[in-house]
Write a structure and sequence with these properties.
The chain is an alpha/beta fold. It is built from four helices and six strands; from the N terminus they run H-E-E-H-E-E-H-E-E-H. Strands 1, 2, 3, 4, 5 and 6 form a six-stranded mixed β-sheet that branches.
């Protein structure tokens, strides 16, 4: 009878010791790297704002700093990201007939802003995780009655946030 409490204590101690051997990151980051180098993204779009590349680069660095324990460095990063903004398109979507919309001559109820980037990623610790020329893109729709300039900043932020998640998942989260 006295062995049952002793056995219970032994099991609890064993479980606690085993728990110390397991590590989990709530960001899902599956890397042992400590540094990341993000080169300036070149803006190769016809319609995008002139500062889009710099804005994208700075916000991508911030995303890695906020969502991982990686330190952003200027050179010799264990992880390295570079890329080009390749797409900044504004296109009509959700076509409607003039009679159905109540507005004659209105070809679309919504307009879509799409941003795309091409990314090169080098993992110096695990080269098999590296990739070249992987494309990421996302879009956001807005009413055709609104001018792009009135919603541009919020749409760009929404689109870039999703692209950052996708890049993060493809690089250090390995999803």
């Amino acid at each position: 009878m006295k062995s049952k409490p002793a056995l219970s204590v032994l099991i609890v101690i064993s479980l606690l010791l085993l728990e110390g051997c397991i590590s989990y990151s709530f960001t899902g980051a599956a890397t042992n790297a400590r540094t990341i180098q993000v080169e300036d993204f070149f803006n190769n779009t016809d319609l995008g704002p002139a500062n889009l590349g710099q804005t994208f680069t700075n916000k991508l660095k911030e995303y890695y700093q906020q969502n991982s324990s990686l330190v952003v460095v200027k050179e010799n990063g264990e992880l390295q990201i570079e890329g080009t903004l390749t797409q900044y398109n504004v296109t009509p979507v959700a076509p409607v007939s003039g009679a159905a919309s109540g507005r004659l001559g209105d070809p679309a109820a919504l307009t879509r802003l799409t941003i795309g980037v091409r990314v090169n990623y080098v993992d110096t610790l695990e080269p098999k995780n590296s990739f070249k020329e992987k494309t990421f893109s996302f879009y956001a729709d807005f009413p055709s009655t609104q001018d792009l300039s009135s919603v541009q900043e919020s749409l760009e932020r929404k689109i870039m946030d999703q692209i950052f998640i996708d890049i993060f998942n493809a690089t250090i989260a390995n999803w």
